[in-house]
Amino acid sequence: MNTSNLKAYLAILGAVTFWGLSFVWTNKLIHLNIPIFTFIFARLLIAGTVLVLICLCLGKLEKLRRKDLKWFLLMAVCEPFIYFIAETYGIKTTNSPTLSALIIATIPIFTMMGDRLFYKTDISKWTVIGILLTLPGVFLMVINGGKITSDYWWGILLLFLAVFAACGYNLCIRNLVNNYSPLTICYVQFILGSVMFLPLMLTTRGNFDVASLFTRDALLPILCLALLCSCLAFCLQLIAVGRIGITKASVFNATIPIVSAVASFFYGMETFTVIQIVGILIVVFGVILAQTRPHRIK
User: CA angle at residue 147 from 144 to 151, to 5 degrees?
Assistant: First the structure.
């Protein structure tokens, strides 16, 4: 493995680690009864502002080309707008960070299909096999959790809407990642996202006291979501996509439940059993297999 690929894999591993933790931090904010659109808006505004300041300090505030504006707008509509709404309400309805992360782990399958359908990308047979192999691991972890009942179906549907939004986002950034820096793509994404969420935040916060966001219990998870799960994780993802492509990068989403399950276990929110460990090992093996090169599908 060359140095460039190693950096790409380390970058995407860092991204999925923070995204796995995001389910725990989001769940904590929900349990603090902070309006969902309020903390999403705060997360995006903080993330976008920080990245703009970084670009200004580094002298890397790039000019956007007119022909790319439609891709930036569609990217922001898919993620963060649709994705964050569907994901957050999905977490709230299922009340299980691990189950939510498991459904999100199907993103690689749909991303692979979209990459093949819209961009005619050559995909290794081993990549296909590796991605499909992650499903039994996901299945084992879901069944073991015993969480799927009729009360959860709306939450599950919302989470699958988040999956399709993430696939749309991945297909959009494929058109941008070779022409703009990760910092530029991310700050545009978050600034546009905060603008989209502003009306929702203003009309749904009711009597919620915004000053409550500045308490330690609320501010810490919001900052973690903004700085680690948005600023850092999305930039790391774009670095990886630019090197190994959206299909191979997205397959690492299947490891998000592992991070989420481990973190939830230490927070006392989930159990962690032998069946889950077997599922984790299957997922990890599938991700490794998906990175092999030979026998491409033409």
Answer: 160
